[in-house]
Write a structure and sequence with these properties.
Pfam families: Mrr_cat. With about 200 residues, this protein is of the alpha/beta class. About 60% of the residues lie in helices and about 15% in strands. The strands form 2 sheets. Strands 1-2-3-5-7 form a 5-stranded mixed beta sheet, sandwiched between helices. Helix 5 crosses helix 9 and helix 7 packs parallel to helix 8.
């Protein structure tokens, strides 16, 4: 059984926050506990912030590896300029490079069916250029995912409406976001090379 951290837990929130916040919490907690304990145990109290220090180190590592805002903007521009054929080829190339099996989904609500280490996924991405995504394509994706016993994933370059964001959270729809888009945009080069052979 694979354990998953609750998305709204303190540690999960800190992992998504700037790394230095966890470091500040570690220092403050360590100082507070040290001050409350008798002098002979003050060194032990300083270690109370250790879990926050670890979370801060993990967050710093993830943020160091994350693409820059300029690179994300460039990826969005690249993908927005592409045709559906180019995007679909890039999606297929990207998932195959991760060792997944990917094929076109025959039904409504999704565009690709993906089998990989995370199980079965249904990916919806035909409306990737829409400036704002409403609830309708997400409802169709969830319906298809429930039918196929798959996890829903959605790709969009634009914003989600408030109702779509709420629906996505309620139905645990994963999104191809910033870092995923950078990987996808960079895989277009590989897809273009393989098409030219």
């Amino acid at each position: 059984m694979k354990l998953k951290m609750a998305e709204r837990s303190l540690f999960a929130i800190l992992l998504r926050s700037p790394w230095w916040i966890s470091f500040v919490l570690a220092i403050v907690l360590g100082l507070l506990v040290s001050a409350m304990l008798p002098r002979q145990y003050s060194a032990l109290g300083a270690s109370a912030g250790f879990p926050f220090l670890v979370i801060g180190l993990i967050a710093a590592w993830q943020q160091l590896r994350a693409p820059s805002p300029a690179r994300i903007a460039q990826a969005r521009q690249t993908l927005a300029a592409m045709s559906w054929g180019e995007v679909s080829a890039a999606v297929e190339q990207s998932y195959r490079s991760k060792g997944c099996t990917i094929g076109r989904y025959a039904g409504n609500g999704a565009d690709f069916e993906i089998l990989g280490p995370q199980g079965k996924l249904l990916l919806g991405c035909k409306r990737w250029k829409a400036a704002r995504t409403g609830i309708e394509p997400l409802q169709e994706l969830v319906k298809a995912a429930e039918k196929e016993s798959a996890r829903p994933v959605y790709m969009a370059l634009g914003e989600l409406t408030d109702s779509a964001r709420s629906f996505a959270a309620q139905h645990r729809i994963a999104f191809m976001q910033d870092a995923d888009l950078v990987v996808l945009a960079s895989s277009t080069t590989g897809a273009a090379k393989s098409d030219s052979r």
